[in-house]
Design brief:
Number of helices: 2
Distance between the termini: 29 Å
Oligomer: single chain
Low-confidence stretches: none
Shape: globular
Radius of gyration: 15 Å
Structural class: mainly beta
Strand content: 25-35%
Mean pLDDT: 90
Amino acid sequence: MTLRARIAGDQGYLTIKGPSVGNSRLEYEYSIPVEDAQEMLNTLCGSPLIEKVRYKVSHDNFIWEVDEFAGDNQGLIVAEVELDNENQEVELPDWIGEEVSHDKRYTNSNLSKNPWKNWH
């Protein structure tokens, strides 16, 4: 299980993610006061924190979440899309590079321990 606190704009969020089964996992997200999220990030979360900007991109009736990383993961850009189930067919946009769904190095929890800058 993974717990995540994050801030997007003027809103805080607490996300709870269950264990991965294939490419699927249960996920619950709750709005929390931004002050609470900031306190959690400052006091409860280990260093280094994952720094990124998230963009939402609409393509072919899907909303892609594109994360542009900063800090120790500067230069890494990852895109993901939420599907109804892991067997749902989706045509990857031409701006998508390598498929990394099965590569655990790209998970946020791993990127905090083994940042992208160390892969080269």
